[in-house]
Amino acid sequence: MxxxxxxxxxxxxxxxxxxxxxxxxxxFAAADIGSLRDIILKFHQLWxxxxxxxxxxxxxxxxxxxxSEYLESDDRITLFNFxxxxxxxxIVDAVIKNNPAFMNTQLFFNPINPELKDFWHRxxxxxxxxxxxxxxxxxxxxxxxxVPLFDELGMELVPGTxxxxxxxxxxxVRQEEEGRLSNESLSTGKKIKLAAGDLLVFSADMIHRGxxxxxxxxxxxxxxxxxxxxxxxxDPDCLPNSAMLAQIDDPRLFNNTLDLKSKSNxxxxxEI
Length: 272
What we know:
The protein has 272 residues and is of the alpha+beta class. It is 37% helix and 20% strand. The longest helix has 21 residues, at 30-50. The protein is built from nine helices and ten strands. It has helices spanning 9-19, 30-50, 52-57, 73-83, 86-95, 130-139, 168-174, 242-245, 252-271; strands at residues 2-3, 21-25, 61-63, 100-109, 142-148, 152-157, 190-194, 199-203, 208-210, 217-225. It has a single domain (2-271), classed as Sandwich (Jelly Rolls), CATH 2.60.120.
């Protein structure tokens, strides 16, 4: 745990390299969280109405918050400026030294369906088989920057698993092998309770789970190292257009993403 008054980027980098996460308490002012909360709740209410059955049955998160479907341009610009603010970029630059790029945003909330339980996972398990997972945890760099909008139970993480493979217990629980379930407790898990104003940064590929309960509503900003090949994961609608870029104080996070998308499109045309 790091206090915002004692911020040291070298310390942040060292803690992330060793543990795969860090949390900064009271990082954001109450007024900033209040303004952010108003926009996110606007998105959330419209999204819930548009996805009523999905929300009631299986949902515990949504994504593409910065897209044009539910928010007007002014709110999107406010979000883009928060995502690329000095406070966020100081943290991003401490962990990703070269050309960090914006991937997406996600919103995490409590599921309506009581049968849905908080479950252990690595993000990469949804894209890769076991053998590839063992490789990508050493090669890729994707950050979650979690901004809780209300006080919540927070996250449970397994420190160090951004750089090591599962123990037998961790694997059996995460993959639901040998009769284990993915919502069971792990002896290696560490619970991190979060309050509005805190910032939790963690590796997407470490073993983790969100903890359901209280007034859980957390905005996650996903950022990646441009050296990684993640351009296919990016929805262009979630990026600022040229007019919006002119209103963003520090647009480099988005410019890096736009450059990657442009190169990807050029390569695709060349292959065709």
